[in-house]
Amino acid sequence: MISRSLLLILVLALAPARGFAQGGAQENAPAAARETVLRAFPAGAGPQSVGVVDASEDTEIDGPQAISAADDGTIYLLDQVNGRVLNFDAKAPERTRSLVLPEGVEPTDLVVAQGAVYVWDGKPIALEAKGGGLTRSLSEGGDDLEAARSMFAQTGSQIEDGADGRTRAIAPARARQLVATRGRGMVEAAVSLEGDGKGARLALYEKGAQKAFASLAMKAQAKFGSIEFLDVDRAGRMYALAEIIPEFAGLGAATFVARFAPGGAFEGVYELPLTPSLALSRRFVTVSPDGEVFFLRTRKGVVDVIGVGFTPMKRGEAVAARAAAVDYAALAKLGKGAIAAVRPLTRASVVETGRAFEAFTWRVGPTSYGGDPDAPCSGFNRVRRPPYLAGRAGQEVRGVPYCWGCQGSLPQFAARVAKGALAGNVCTRDAPRRDVVGVDCSSFVSAAWGLSTHFTTLAIPSITSQVADPWELKPGDALNKPGSHVMLFMGFTPDRKAEVLEASPGACQGRVCRNVYPLAALMQRGYEPRRFRALAD
Questions:
Q1: Euclidean distance between CA atoms 374 and 381, whole angstroms
Q2: Are the C-beta atoms of 55 and 300 separated by less than 8 Å?
């Protein structure tokens, strides 16, 4: 591999509105600091551990999906593998509390808004701690829930609409993001881009106000991706999460948190340590009430909560992002030769097939559900039921289940499951079971592309070409991480995130589902924009 680096010139300015407190935070800005590991959790199920399912071929690491800081400085982790939420005091991280999730709740995201804990399981669910567990709270309305909905929308969470059997489209462009801040209460943030996409502005409002109390302007030498307003800390400093995506994929991308002083001065950035070895997570950064930035890093066998180092910057200084150029020729040698398509291919047909896997509704019969217990991923059985099927025997469910090593078209799955075949398997460490039906990530993309052969993530480069400009991705293309995971690209959301369909044991609760991710975060984790060579435009 050839290492390259990209310097992105980032010019930021903040124009304070009348009446906003003038502060002296600029002269107190800390010196540049390295990241520090606040707490390292080994993989496991014990009280001082975090659930991690290590990666194998065509399977990403599955670990905690979210990190969120509470008003009192407590850090919360969603340990969905072990069915619980962990929390600890940022100032005393060695003391960890484990709270078991309510029965039947299988969340994929977590936020803490003004002291209330919310998880996402198809909708926001308010929770409260009781004893050693969490129970559903009766608090189901008000500003806190509205803020939680807005914060979940930042990560692309969406509500399934049972009326017509389809999932609602990803939330349309939000006129304003609503954030429950520590230093300013409920704040609405409106994000707008300049015509070339290389400039952005965030206007900040008190909830319901028509006049902004602050305006952040950002410019870069490459296009901005998603931009999210994160918080106002107790000192009045403001934080925004932003990504920069060059118009050539090989040059890499940058994801950072920008910090601004109460008086309007740009203070510097927190560069987030995203690398290809890290697992995907839905919510990977949070800001404490005192303005510390924490990053969730899941890698093989360990989960770190990192205090991200702050780099003071002056206007016009450079933010450096590192990327690696992948040897695609070497990967192509792992291919399987000629492309074997089973039907004529268009982008419309790819999208239609992918959506059909996600929207497929079927009844879980007793033999498809399987027997209990089914937890171990070793020995003769090597089967673990996908989480979305738990407790659903005899009921209708939505989505084709995840099954590592399985493959087949949607009609083939429907026929086999109708005959009572065992459905789904999220065990990924041993040889696949041929008597189980479903799809894994690459067999799903292969089926959407109309292939009669299952091309793994290592083989996909041999039948695709790299999309040089990530902004040129089109519906039906893919985001592929060789040896790990692949997603079917469906389009860009109005706030410039990547909407995908994927088969995932963790991010989709063990089925084919829609998800939304920041594009730069995917690229920094090693995902490559790829275009199937046989796909007609």
A1: 8
A2: yes
Element (H, E) at 328: helix 328-332
Q: What is the pLDDT of residues 251-303, one digit of tens each?
A: 678 899 999 888 777 788 899 999 888 888 889 999 999 999 999 999 888 99
Measure the CA–CA gap between 416 and 391, rounded to whole angstroms.
21
Domain that includes residue 416, residue range: 328-532
C-alpha to C-alpha distance for 520 and 249, rounded to whole angstroms: 10
Contact 134, 144 (CB under 8 A): no
231, 287 Cβ separation under 8 angstroms: yes
Residues 6+ positions from 242 with CB-CB distance below 8 Å: 200, 218, 224, 225, 226, 227, 228, 255, 256, 257, 258
Terminal-residue alpha carbon distance, the chain: 31
The number of folded domains in the chain is 2
Q: Are 73 and 292 in contact (CB under 8 A)?
A: no
Q: At what angle do helices 347-359 and 441-448 cross, to 10 degrees?
A: 130
Write phi, then psi, for 158 (nearest 5 degrees): -140, 155
What CATH number should be reported for the domain holding residue 481?
A: 3.90.1720
Whether the Cβ atoms of residue 405 and residue 514 lie closer than 8 Å to each other: no
Same domain (yes/no): 119, 142: yes
Report residue 126 CA to chain centroid gap.
Answer: 21
Asked if residue 537 belongs to a domain, the reply is no
| Tens digits of residue pLDDT in 191-245 | 999 888 888 889 999 988 899 999 988 888 888 999 999 999 999 999 999 999 9
Strand ranges in 62-209 using DSSP code E only, listed in sequence order:
67-69, 74-79, 84-89, 92-100, 109-113, 116-120, 124-130, 133-136, 160-161, 166-167, 177-181, 185-193, 199-206
Whether residue 306 sits in one domain with residue 384: no
* Residue 419 tokens, joined: 């005959």
**Mean pLDDT score of the chain:** 81
DSSP letter string, 408-451? --HHHHHHHHHTT-EE-B---SSPPPTTEE-B-HHHHHHHHTTB
Q: What is the pTM of this model?
A: 0.83
Whether residue 397 lies inside any domain: the answer is yes
Order of strands across the sheet that contains 214-220: 177-181, 185-193, 199-206, 214-220, 2-16, 318-325
Q: Is 148 helix (H, G, I), strand (E, B) or coil?
A: helix
